[in-house]
Amino acid sequence: MSSSPLPPSPPPLLPPPLAAWGLTLAEHLLIDGGLDPDAAVWQVRDDSGGLWAVKATRRDCRFGLALAASVGADVSVVAPVPTTTGRLWTEHEGSIVSVSPWVFGDDAAEDGRGLDDAQWTELGAVVRRIHDQAPPSDVAPLRRGVKRTGKRARVLLRDLDHRFVGRPDDPLAELWREHRGRLDRLERVALELKGTRTDTDRVPCHGDPHLGNVVVDEAGRPWLIDLDEATVAPREVDLVLVELGVLPGLPMTEAHRSAFRLGYGDDVALDDDRLVRFGCIRALEDVTATFSSLERAHSSQHGSDADGVQAGLGAQLGPLGLVSLVEARLSRA
Fold first, then answer.
1. Under DSSP, is residue 230 helix (H, G, I), strand (E, B) or coil?
2. Please, are residues 213 and 77 in contact by the beta-carbon 8 Å criterion?
3. What is the pLDDT of residue 4?
4. CATH 1.10.10.10 assigned to 153-198+272-331
């Protein structure tokens, strides 16, 4: 029997029942383009004309929903709407279901849109508000610290080494071997810096506050969405995505960082070693996840249309990808 992971199930065409919120479905639209194979999002209009975002996910996002609700919409965090009995989510066919107001606006990462300096300052203030919030006491985060996969980087690397054995003419395996030394270096650096880490405050974190999780509304106000990766951890878990950057198509500039810091505040000293270590871990997780996705797409059990993922991998390994950004930071050390 093959040990390859099963492909994700296709999202259901219909949204889950909304009776718990007292909503009657009138129209719905399944939203395409999400990167999470375990989740589906619908735009839903109820019979009174209200517009909602309905999400069903197989991931345990309860801590993130509770954190978003505790922060509130006053600080531009899209929060779940409670059910008629006060719950922030329901369960349906193995998925956690939540409902939030639909934000009319544009994805900040779409078409290279980005943010202007004033919006970066607003986003900095939003992230700081999350970091200053007391964590929810009635639900614990599934994720602990910076790691999102639950696996050590060495395990991720060795898993792909095994998959690419005996494939000398496979372009993907050749690309893996070409960059394997770079990834090995990041894994070594992360381990070395972990050995010298010092104690620090642990705060509620969004977990993934890049521009792909920011919607700019019609008034130009940036909203943070999707707290599925939320956790309690050193604040650098979030801030590495600003200090280094994670989206090759929208590289961070010093003007972006300065504007973000203006909103976030300059009363907190960041640990540069911790930023580098978290950058190493994030880069390793992102790159190995993309290689794994492409490797599965090359098998007979999966679809073969992976052009977009292939382009994303090239960007991750390119001069504006996080691997290169971490390497550049190390060269200045």
1. coil
2. no
3. 45
4. no
